[in-house]
Amino acid sequence: MPSRMRRRTVLPVAAAVTAALVVASLLVGEFDISLGALLTDPVAREMFFISRVPRTLSLIFAGAAMAVSGVVMQMITQNKFVEPTTAGTSQWAGLGILAALLLAPNLGPMPKMLIATAFAFVGTLLFVGVLRRISMEQQLVVPLVGIMLGAVVGAITTFLAGTFDLLQSMSAWRSGGFSGIVRGFYEPLWAVVVIAVLVYLLAHRFTVAGLGKDLATTVGLNYDATVLLGVAMVAVCTGVTSVVVGFIPFLGLIVPNIVSMALGDDVRRNLPWVAVLGVGLLLACDLLGRTVVAPMEIPAAVILGAVGAAVFVLLVLRQRRRVLA
Hey, how many other C-beta atoms are within 10 angstroms of the C-beta on 64? Predict the structure, then answer.
């Protein structure tokens, strides 16, 4: 069987594994919620709908949103190593959260999301603007620029948080954990589902934009408007997920690259698989964090960060081998 066909057979298996992980996420936890308990115990049933269902839905929504955001970022920058973490978008969203805490400590979640989204939007536009003024012949230059910008913004955020005694509040954002997700708190994540659907409907535009400005303009695409729209969508996904669940690193880097290796670079064809695998990876990290040190938890972002860093290095080495070859 050809290598590409073997890769394609893996995707349905991955979808089945993701479905199993969703069921496991609903059932695994310190409070015993089995199928029998759901049918006979009203307390277990109430806990299931107050905690387990919202947590699992937030994992699904956040995983799909950040994976799809990675696809959009890679198309508008024409670089496989870019996603909200390596472009500084997430760090700008964190700065927006800190600004909201400083200016209005009692501000509700929705205004915080708007502020975080605005900061993420401005920061991503700054990143794209910097890219237009430097040579991008080397693929690794682009994520290095984003990582450096993100590090500067992160350092400013940490300094201000330490100065105003808000380090503990900001650490909750950086942890990217789902243990505190309950009914009544996760609902804003429905907004990122809308964004994911819009990305799918406009996928052909991002596919053409990924060919470069000159070619995209030649075929009649308004390239600058498409880039601006992509940046806005990524900013919304990053801002909302940052406020609700926190920092989710590398998800938008790992999953789109895996799907692209199997299916190519057609955004519309890839997006459903990107969303499914993004959900599966985040669910797996969350379940591992729930069980490995039970009854304590390791935040999903910590495990995802370790996995993502390793995959990032492997992708860099793979790119280096291709260049040398």
Answer: 27
Q: What's the CATH code, domain 3-324?
A: 1.10.3470.10
DSSP assignment, residue 34? -
- Give the amino acid at 143: P
pLDDT 10s digits, 135-164: 656 667 888 888 899 999 999 999 999 999
Query: Is the whole-model pTM more than 0.85?
Result: yes
- DSSP string covering 270-289, please? HHHHHHHHHHHHHHHHHHHH
Yes or no: say if 190 and 61 are a contact pair by the CB < 8 Å rule: yes
Distance CA 37, CA 258 (A): 39
Residue 128: CA count within 13 A, CB half-sphere: 28
The candidate with the shortest Cα–Cα distance to 153, out of 174, 176, 136, 138, is 174
Cβ contact 60:22 at 8 Å: yes
SS3 249: coil
- What are the tokens at 68? 């799809």
